[in-house]
Write a structure and sequence with these properties.
Elements lengths: L3 H9 L32 E6 L2 E7 L7 H9 L26 E8 L2 E2 L5 E4 L13
Antiparallel strand pairs: 1-2, 1-3, 3-4, 3-5
């Protein structure tokens, strides 16, 4: 998830915009998936629907860099440890969501849905201490 208002302002001012991805609840994750279910991580289909309409669907085969290369590059900068999560991007089709929307997502291998990867998120406003205001 990305708070586009925060991201756009930061970009306009030449500031880092990673804060726009760091709010509480902005990284919903499904449960762990056993490695033996994913024979080839470069041949997995990822999908995401909003209110039952497909917004994103693509294959990990389209990633610009293979996973081994990504991990190698990352580990040149920071130590990767067991349990770390590496975010590599998202398929085309990002778009806004609003309160009341229902996001469902998952993955397929050889055309078959992986139950452990299924995720459902109900979009809701969440009170917090951050209050967006242009600076």
């Amino acid at each position: 998830m990305t708070a586009r208002n925060v991201q756009d302002e930061a970009k306009d001012k030449g500031l880092p915009w990673t804060i726009a991805k760091g709010f509480d609840t902005f990284l919903p994750l499904a449960g762990p998936i056993s490695a033996d279910k994913v024979k080839d991580p470069h041949d997995v289909e990822l999908w995401l629907d909003v209110n039952g309409t497909r917004r994103q669907e693509d294959s990990t085969a389209l990633m610009m860099f293979r996973i081994a290369r990504q991990l190698s590059d990352i580990s040149k900068v920071m130590t990767l440890e067991k349990g770390d999560i590496v975010l590599t991007g998202t398929p085309k089709g990002v778009g806004p969501v609003k309160k009341g929307d229902i996001i469902t997502a998952g993955m397929r291998i050889n055309g078959k849905d992986v139950d452990e990867a299924r995720l459902e998120v109900h979009v809701e406003d969440r009170p917090g201490i951050y209050n967006f205001a242009e600076t």
